[in-house]
Design brief:
204 residues; Rossmann fold; 6-stranded parallel beta sheet
Length: 204
């Protein structure tokens, strides 16, 4: 089975929009420093790279699913041009209420991806920037990491991740260090990257 790195989008891959706003257009998509390098490292280490993102803006009528698919396609193409392959994109288009099975902290997107792509969740990582991301990863049975711009001390105690760092690149470097022979814990078996092809999460 293939191991994967599940990445949240806003705050991990690209800059978050201001509070109450959403990234809905390509002009608003600004990659964070080191993201392409980090994803490239995951690719070469045999991780499938899968984006899992809550996109409440769709339920609020601020973007359509077609808009969101197009944005994700351009995101994947821009990163691929920098040597960073994203293998799939899953997103939840629902609002907070009524509850659904795919909106993080629910693990639905991760479970669907695992079913679709034959992923070994125990050997996989969920990397996000919120307690909801960490909780989703833990519920799915993944190891977890959290990007906290203010530093490790700012991480929430609600859902304690295995790794905390200030950027995706730092987190990936720590994950790969854990994989190094002789590091604490057995390394996950490397496997060929899964087939590319962005797609959205199924409605739950």
């Amino acid at each position: 089975m293939v191991r994967a790195a599940f990445l949240d989008r806003d705050g991990v891959i690209n800059q978050k929009a201001p509070e109450g706003a959403y990234v809905t257009r390509w002009e608003q998509m600004h990659f964070l420093p080191g993201v392409a390098e980090a994803i490239g490292l995951l690719n070469r280490a045999g991780f499938g790279v899968i984006v899992v993102s809550n996109q409440r803006c769709i339920a609020k009528g601020l973007a359509t699913m077609r808009d969101t698919d197009a944005l994700h396609q351009r995101m994947c193409e821009a990163l691929a041009a920098r040597g960073a392959r994203i293998d799939a994109v899953y997103y939840c288009p629902h609002d907070k209420q009524p509850p659904c099975a795919c909106r993080k902290p629910a693990p639905g997107m991760l479970l669907t991806a695992a079913h679709d792509r034959g992923l070994d969740l125990a050997a996989s990582w969920m990397i996000g920037d919120s307690a909801a991301d960490v909780a989703a990863g833990q519920k799915a049975g993944c190891k977890t990491a959290r990007v906290v711009a203010e530093g490790p001390a700012a991480a929430s105690a609600d859902a304690v991740p295995d790794v905390v760092a200030s950027s995706l690149l730092e987190i990936v470097q720590q994950i790969l260090e854990r994989d190094r022979p002789g590091a604490d814990g057995p390394p996950a078996d490397a496997a060929s990257p899964i087939a590319a092809g962005p797609r959205k999460a199924r409605n739950a």
